[in-house]
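In response to reviewer comment 3 from the previous cycle, which asked for concrete evidence that the modeling workflow produces usable outputs, we include below a single protein chain processed end to end. The sequence was submitted unchanged, and the resulting structure tokens are shown without manual editing.
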Amino acid sequence: MCAAVDALLLSRLQFALTIMFHYLFPPLAIGMGIVLVYLEAMYFWKKDPLYEVAAKFWTKIFGLNFAVGVVTGIVMEFEFGTNWAVYSRYVGDVFGSALAAEGIFAFFLESGFLALLIFGWDRVGPKTHLFATTMVALGSIFSSIWIVVANSWQQTPAGHVLREHVVNGQVFTRAEIVDFWAVVFNPSAMHRLVHVWIGAFLVGAFFIMSISAWYVLRNVHLEFARRSFAGALLLATISALAQIASGDLQSKNVYRHQPAKMAAMEGIFKTENGATLYMAGWPDEQTREVRYGIGIPGMLSWLLFGDANKPVAGFDQLREVWGQPPVWLTFQAYHVMVGVGFLFVGATLFATFCLWRGTLFSQRWLMWCFVLAVVPAVIANELGWVTAEVGRQPWIVYPTMTGGKLVPGLMTQAAISESVAPSQVFGSIIMFGMIYALLLVLWIVVLNHKIQLGPEAVAIAPEAKSGWLGAASERVDHEGSLTEAKRENRV
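The workflow returned the following structure tokens.
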């Protein structure tokens, strides 16, 4: 029993390590892909060479992120068979269909046009290259569709039946598809897909703003940096505001289909009328209360039902049927994610106001904030998945209520491979940890090299500095000249 528990814990740790490292890169690919299409479309429309230079530079960064993302993503597919054989047997028909669709409709599309995107600048015309860039961006988005569909089916299963099979005298249960489109449009898929997309747009936008702000602070590649920053800021502002609406719909959907996850997210140990919405706190599973809680009474009930007095189910009603996830980790991951989201709303709106006033790029403290802001953007994306995956425990495939009848799911402790040994899992964790550490160092070194080289030099026409962005650019140019003059006087 001890060995089995150890293997379970280690296998969960290994999968968390590999998938969280891998998930550093797909959001970058999705978010940057949208920006690349925008830059190339603007170049095709306005014939401004700065847009072409910007597109070429960010394409190099995109290619690096794509390469590391592909390498790190392969490992997880093997883990389904090595560590989670019982799970793979249970969901193989459903998961296999989604992953096959991802390969056919997304990965081949994305990788097929990637060569034209990276190496086709001087070999094909602008129309063809813009088309290739669009296909790569769409490929990244299509890939996310099938991965999120597969994961969402585990959260809210639909379109399947459970059948028993006998192999070598052993009986096992398998989920088999009876309605493919019901699987695709399962109750949580579209809500979660939009939420994932917006999170990816934020990561890509803040990544571009981070590098652009660094150039502004160093007083190099200024026009390129301002143009790139302004475009990414537009995407980030829209996405930050949209994420509030998406998060509200997602929360209501979670309560409808996964009430125990919502109870863990909000620390609801006891069913209460007028449930409190906590801004922060410390859930204590021993005393079954949120200690040091800072919240608004009745607000959670109002957000979920539009009625501040309606009851919200707690674990006293839910535990027996749905189980109880780890409350502290789910609560903290969810609240940090939400806090970062509201922080980004304020930051992007303020930066947009400063851009409109023509003072954005002259405020060095604000540029430093955006240099560092990519870190909480990545953390928020990771914590979103922590909330989703830890919050559905103890189920790896969540049970459902159909026609008032509970349809059983698959518990995580029952999904592990029967023959895997704890020592094997531990050894592979060490091995993958070393490989991923090397990949991370390599990615940082190559990324830093590309950032230090910067974009190609390009002559900027005077009319390119018109408008409110141009006013900001000219102000920064003036301040940069004053700084250089001061340096010369000191010398």
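The beta strands are 160-167, 170-177, 272-273, 277-284, 289-296, 311-312, 395-397, 400-402, 405-407, 410-411. We consider this sufficient to address the reviewer's concern, and the full set will be provided in the supplementary archive.
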